[in-house]
From TrEMBL:
UniProt key word Transmembrane helix: yes
Keyword Membrane on entry: yes
TM ranges: 203-223
Protein's UniProt name: SURF1-like protein
Keywords recorded for this protein, A-Z: Cell membrane, Membrane, Transmembrane, Transmembrane helix
Organism: Pelomonas nitida
Pfam families: SURF1 (PF02104)
Length: 236
């Protein structure tokens, strides 16, 4: 075998090994996400927390909270689709009963006016003490935006720390994704998507890497072994 053929063999083996290793790495990432999803499901199966028991480690737990809406601090997060329609996530702070803190509540989804995106639909926010339930999550999903964002009622994103400084509210490092409770007949949709850990993405990437590894091996075998034999003159 010539030096050139040895070089091609080494390159093919290296490329196939590297892409196969990347495929295994993606499967490892998927396995980690499976374990994380199992942990999230286990948290969600625990008894619901009440306001006094909330801590920064309460993510993914169910909760039943009592308090009063801080209606004047309601924020409408733009470009949040639900059921294939464009609209807003409505976020209102809830001042918790028996605590000095408040928590941001992702109350639901409202449609956007196609003719005037600044025209907001009516929103019924009950006064007085209310009780709501849902699951505890991190900050609302963040979308790409140019610049540092701005205040106002309609926003692209909501930074909890900046909003706490702006509103003067002591906010817990959690949000509640509301599923039931006060104002549940307010016309807001609550078809919340399940938390997406990107599991299928890792499986897709793994398939691509393994396919590329097989392609490298197949091309080497074809060009270095099968094709030369097919082109070799047949003996009479």
């Amino acid at each position: 075998m010539t030096a050139r053929r040895w070089g091609l063999l080494a390159a093919a083996l290296l490329g196939a090994a590297l892409t196969a290793r990347l495929g295994v790495w993606q499967l490892d990432r998927a396995a980690q996400k499976v374990e994380l999803q199992a942990a999230i499901d286990a948290q969600g199966a625990l008894p619901a927390l009440e306001g006094a028991a909330l801590t920064a480690t309460s993510l993914h737990r169910r909760a039943v909270l009592r308090g009063r809406w801080v209606a004047e601090r309601t924020v409408w997060l733009d470009n949040r689709p639900m059921d294939g329609r464009a609209g807003f996530y409505v976020v209102t702070p809830l001042r918790l009963a028996g605590r000095s803190e408040a928590i941001l509540v992702q109350r639901g989804w409202a449609p956007r006016d196609a003719a005037d995106r600044t025209r907001l639909p009516p929103l019924d926010t009950p006064g007085g003490d209310v009780e709501i339930s849902g699951r505890l999550a991190a900050a609302p999903s963040r979308l790409y935006e140019l610049g540092t964002g701005s205040g106002g009622t309609i926003r692209q994103n909501l930074d909890a720390a900046a909003f706490a400084a702006e509103s003067g509210l002591a906010l817990l490092p959690l949000t509640l994704v509301q599923t039931e409770g006060a104002g549940a007949d307010d016309g807001l949709l609550r078809h919340w998507p399940a938390p997406d850990l990107g599991l299928q993405k890792h499986y897709g990437y793994a398939f691509q890497w393994f396919a590329l590894s097989a392609l490298i091996v197949g091309l080497y075998v074809w060009f270095q072994h099968l094709r030369p034999r097919l082109r070799r003159p047949q003996q009479p």
